[in-house]
Amino acid sequence: MIKTELEIFTMAKITMDTYQARYEKAKERRKERFRNLNANYKPGSPLLLEERNKIVPDFEAEIAKARNDLMMEFEDSLMKLRAVETAKVAVISNETKTMMSVLDCLETKTVSVDEYKVLAEHYGGKLYWIDRLLERVADKCGIMDSMVQPPLSVKLEILQTLEQNVREYIDGYDGENKCFPVTSSDKYIYKMEESYTNGYSGVRLDSREQAKRMISKALNEGSSLDRSFVLANMLRTSTPDIQDEMLSILAEKDPAALHDPTMQFTGVKNVVDRFIKTDGELVKAAGVAMKKADNAKSHQERIGILWDNFDNRYLRKKIEERIAATNDEELKDSYENMKEIKEEQKQESRANKGE
């Protein structure tokens, strides 16, 4: 499986978060229009009554449009993914037949866990029907983890549940954050994603995507002590690129955790101290800038805010993630233009220095 096939789960979260943001903005506009009635119109005048009677219908129309647009885009992506997964079942090539003839003999033999692991790593994750055969071998030999993607029926059921969750959230959200706190959480979305892939079997995730899932898992451990120890162990055993990504995400979600006593453990302290010294403020500034940009009253104002902070690599990363998740063409074009201008400025600076 390629990473893009998992983007439907990210899109589900973004769809819910975007609807919430649009709802809140529409609600704020409604309140502002009510507040401005007496300032803009003569009390009791026909114009005031006319304007007042428009406010709630306009709000409801704006919300209905947001709901419809977001669900249409999400359902379109779901339909495409279902088609991709269904098409895999129909692929029975000569390669499939050859591999199945080689592996067929294993169905009557007992395979050890180590032997099965070698087979799954070598043959698994390439062809749908080979994965099904390996699944049967694992089941016969009492091997709990087949290490291959689940069958089509399981995936389609998960996608249906995901679609229902998103629709229920959008249909039911009424401006209260407490509404659907479980099904819209990162923890719940990642759990569905994990089931969809059977523990990410055959999935290639970049360091930031791996870090997101590790942080989500750690922050949802039982007690604060459990969370601290899990985070410390994850940092100690991760590669430097994943360590940096984990710490940048942690600085956004739970900055106090960076100063937890467990972060003073051997093998962790130097990593955390280096991050706080060099990158901690950059992460914080990126979050502030992105929030300001999200609350901008126009696209021009949004781009101005992003441009002023464009040298911050964590902000650039946030912009790239937003573009990937929302397919915001306007933001994408502006981002590419900003990158080109920055590169031209660098080249001009090097030329002036005679480099």
Automatic annotation (TrEMBL):
Protein name according to UniProt: Uncharacterized protein
* Top-rank taxon, per record: Bacteria
Q: Where is this region: Disordered?
A: 326-355
Query: Where along the chain is composition biased (Basic and acidic residues)?
Result: 332-355
